[in-house]
Design goal:
Helices cover about 35% and strands about 15% of the residues. The chain is an alpha/beta fold. Strand 4 (about 120-130), helix 3 and strand 5 (about 155-160) form a beta-alpha-beta unit.
Length: about 375
């Protein structure tokens, strides 16, 4: 069994807790084609927007909006002949800020997975004001992958100034047309810390939820249900302190609000889109809080995660900014009247029973 098959066979279990009863399902995937071959529908067409969103320009003819949530945008090319007229299943936004070194490896892995996935998806790379020469590097990388994976990788979006991770994610989610609106919206970090197979798994799970029990699936870096984690111990403890701070100030009992993989139904996102204001690191918390305020159901799913060198996050400065961001969110959005403990199922020992406990034991590596 090769590494790819092993990851798919023993990827974190999908769980559902209801009235104390726990159901654990292992997921298996049969490859649809041999490695290196292209599936018959490889050249399927998915709407590929050709956008360049511009912010902060003084020329009124170029300036459309400073709000990343607004629908209007400046376009370099309005040719939409690639639109099929039918909705895609998922639009995946990948925010990038000077990620030309880490993006290619992950994008290649993701495209290979999507080429054989049982759903239709489009990937849009959003450059978050990286500037020159990084913008040129990113454009070259994306053009290469668009040639290699036509119909999967869309025209990239280039923001003229840095808006933050959330602003880049939301800008990517704006790049579909009304006749090709996706069922799901997803974002994943460009560094590849979350394996491509995990992205496919969460999208598949939410698409398979035909009864709409869940409106969003959030990846969670938690050491259980088969998940493998490799991260610095300092980041682990800062994450636990931050989660406690979020719970106290907002009422969200979430284990990991900051994991770089989230999948949400487009209808749920549309219901809260106009109220989203945060565009930097704490946008995840605001997104979560407003979804819960709106009565939408979120489920945390353990995922494999491995820290990748090259992070641009400052543990001191950015952590302080994140704490201040939570205070802003509390002031603007309030708190939940009833505490929502998304992390309860993750903490429950009921998940560790019988053969499941032996087969799904997690492994964690914490580096100094």
């Amino acid at each position: 069994m090769n590494e790819r098959d092993r990851n798919r066979r023993f990827s974190p279990a999908v769980y559902q807790a209801s009235r104390g009863a726990v159901e654990i399902k292992n997921r298996t995937t049969t490859e649809k084609a041999k490695a290196g071959s292209k599936p018959a529908d490889f050249h399927r067409e998915v709407y590929e927007p050709t956008l360049r969103i511009t912010y902060g320009l003084s020329d009124a003819s170029e300036l459309h909006t400073l709000d990343p949530f607004a629908a209007s945008s400046s376009c370099e090319n309005q040719d939409r002949s690639n639109a099929t007229g039918s909705a895609m299943d998922c639009l995946i936004s990948i925010p990038c800020f000077r990620e030309s070194k880490r993006l290619p490896l992950f994008l290649d892995a993701l495209c290979k997975e999507l080429a054989y996935a049982p759903f239709r998806a489009s990937v849009v790379i959003v450059d978050d004001g990286s500037g020159s020469p990084e913008e040129s590097f990113t454009r070259s990388i994306v053009n290469e992958f668009r040639s290699k994976y036509p119909g999967i990788v869309a025209e990239p979006v280039f923001l003229t100034r840095n808006l933050g991770k959330g602003g880049a994610v939301y800008a990517g989610w704006k790049t579909f047309s009304s006749d090709s609106a996706p069922k799901l919206l997803c974002f994943v970090d460009a560094d590849g810390a979350v394996p491509a197979a995990e992205v496919i798994r969460l999208i598949e799970e939410l698409l398979a939820d035909r009864r709409n029990r869940w409106d969003a699936l959030f990846g969670s870096r938690v050491k259980m249900l088969g998940a493998t984690l490799d991260r610095r111990i300092t980041r682990h403890y800062i994450g636990r302190v931050f989660a406690t701070f979020v719970a106290v100030l907002t009422g969200i009992g979430i284990y990991d609000s900051q994991c770089g993989l989230k999948v949400i139904r487009r209808s749920a996102y549309a219901a809260i889109e106009s109220r989203l204001k945060e565009t930097r690191f704490v946008f995840d918390v605001e997104l979560t809080l407003l979804l819960l305020h709106g009565g939408f159901r979120i489920r945390e799913v353990p995922v494999n995660w491995k820290e990748v060198p090259g992070s641009k996050v400052s543990l001191l400065k950015d952590t302080i900014r994140m704490f201040l961001g939570i205070l802003r969110i509390r002031q603007r959005c309030g708190t939940l009247t009833k505490r929502h403990d998304l992390a309860d199922d993750l903490k429950s020992e009921e998940h560790w029973h019988g053969a499941g406990r032996r087969e799904l034991r997690s492994t964690v590596t914490l580096n100094d």
